Amino acid sequence: MRIAVTGREGQVVQSLLERGPIAGATVIAVGRPDLDLADPGTVMPALEAAAPDLVVSAAAYTAVDKAETDAATAHAVNGAGAGAVAAAAARLGVPVIHLSTDYVFDGAKPDPYVETDPTGPLGVYGASKLAGEAAVAAAAPDHVILRTAWVYSPFGANFVKTMLRVGETRDVVRVVADQHGRPTAALDIADAVIQVGRNLLGSDDPALRGVFHMAAGGEATWADFAEAIFAEAAARGRRVPAVERIATTDYPTPARRPANSRLDGTKLSNAHGVVLPDWRASLGVCMDRLLS
């Protein structure tokens, strides 16, 4: 299986580059300047040159707070850009797997979100990703949209790395304790994407297509996640701070975050046989990588 993934430096891209060969897949990262989602004319030539069996649409505008004042760019990249990737995959006659986000929901539901729940993004980033989902579905019938959340990995910038960095110099770290989610390892996402891709290439079953939720087992608040990170660090002999639990209102940001980001992965499990590990187990694997 030959996979073309959009982007070069993102957490999922780097994870696919690592995990692909282990799973017997060739992964080609296609990003700027060859493929620029803000310039749709670059998309088809770049993907065609990669000659893929499967396209993974992973590149995105991810600056959640900046998007509030840069809506045009966010929508160009996450909306029209994602649609251009899907259209190119359709022209090439290959499936496309598009990565989306919990931010398409408003977070008001008390239980984990399922795929049929009404969407209602709170800000520009979520709205742009929702527009991308619609563009992908319209451009490529042979598609899977995977919504995920709270992604971390040994690569790039993420919450785990931020906590380790600030923990080196602070005695107390203030972390939001009233937002709930499922911390999800990008390496687990990569494994899942590869399996879903194999399923798409192996069957025309419509049940394998459409929107799916993909997140780790278990759940946590950001404060729970931080405490687990510091516990793992302490077990490896690192200095760690205390965690002060605060409310979202104590840490205002330009973009509102969903209070509930928990995604129910039952549909993905039933259709594709994909179940991600519990987040605490995967965090330990990541910490081994970061602190060994």
Question: Keywords, please?
Answer:
292 residues; single chain; alpha/beta; Rossmann fold
The number of helices is: 9
Give the averaged pLDDT, no decimals: 97
Strand content range: 15-25%
**Contiguous uncertain segments of 5+ residues:** none
What is the CATH third-level topology name?
A: Rossmann fold
The CATH architecture name reads: 3-Layer(aba) Sandwich
Shape: globular
Task: Describe, in plain words, how this protein is organized in 3D.
- By secondary structure, this protein is of the alpha/beta class.
- The chain has a single domain, classed as NAD(P)-binding Rossmann-like Domain (Rossmann fold).
- The protein is 40% helix and 16% strand.
- Strand 4, helix 4 and strand 5 form a beta-alpha-beta unit.
- Helix 1 packs across helix 6 and helix 5 crosses helix 7.
Question: What's the short version?
Answer:
This protein is an alpha/beta fold and 292 residues long. The chain is built from nine helices and twelve strands. Strands 2-1-3-4-5-10 form a six-stranded parallel β-sheet, with helices on both faces. It has a two-stranded parallel sheet with strand order 6-9. A two-stranded parallel sheet has the order 7-12.
